[in-house]
Amino acid sequence: MAAPPQPKELKLDPKYDDYDFPTTSSVAQSGHPGYTTKEQDAQVEQLRMMLEQDGYTKNLDTLTLLRFLRARKFNVDLSKKMFVECEKWRNNFGGGVDELVQTFDYPEKPQIFEYYPQYYHKTDKDGRPVYIESLGKININKMYEITSGDRMLQNLVCEYEKVGDPRLPAASRKAGCLLETCCTIMDLKGVGITSAPSVYGYLQQASGISQNYYPERLGKMYVINAPWGFSGVFSVVKKFLDPVTVNKIHVLGSNYKSELLAQVPKENLPKEFGGECECDGGCKLSDAGPWQDAQYTKPPKWQQKAEAGTEATDKDAIKDTPDASVSEGVPTTHGGAGKAEAVQASADAAKADAPAAA
To answer: CA 326, CA 126: separation in Å to the nearest integer?
Structure first.
């Protein structure tokens, strides 16, 4: 049996890399931080240089560029295309993602969660944040009486931003190694032929945001309470997914608890899924995890930048100097992959089973 590769120190760029958490990946595989080859290091530098030449100055840190490169098999041109499209989206979505994450408020969350719980809750055995979605009670018409599809997507994006900071950095500090992915639990209990089509459009949008703009964030996905026939339909659907993504997805029926508990400690798993956790006020709204522990969490970088910007604005106002501000020249700009496809497969499975049920 071959010995696992030995980690090396991540090659940092002093202009862009300012990390206050471990930078050696928990995944001892080529292309991951601490396990890159000289060629891959050169590709990071090449991608950064190409983007700088095009006027980009944001999100050029090494960890971010490595995620885009891994998502495109280290093809620099394809990685650049993906990055550019992402930056254009970031500048346009919700008036700008950097601004949105600082200002977005979602007071209707408890009401929406009555129909569609989607939340981060503690960590799995590898230290990764656990993301949970329950799709069985979704009623799009009722949800749209409470909020809009745009606000639901904006909330999703803000949660993705908070995964990048502060959730994953806090989890990495606690684990003592770099964690870049989440463990997703997608509960299909109650999803059938009547409910799936109405939610497929929204989930397709949500899945597209995850795959296109937040690459390499899915660690594992457990699809639980999958209806009869789901596995057969999904075997067809997965042909259209990236093989790396397919290998991360575990389709389980109603007897999922032993396999799920092998990945998520019972004290971290909500009781409704076979665990022992019962957070005060409910697990769904607790946002419990290392990112709530002062020992591991720090103010996210986006919050620090916002506070620094406010400070600078205040100083400029006091000075009353119109030319004191300098604009930054930037081109216009969870889990996850396979989500919409999984729900569609569930609907197809339900259709296949409909005659027998009748």
So the answer is: 43
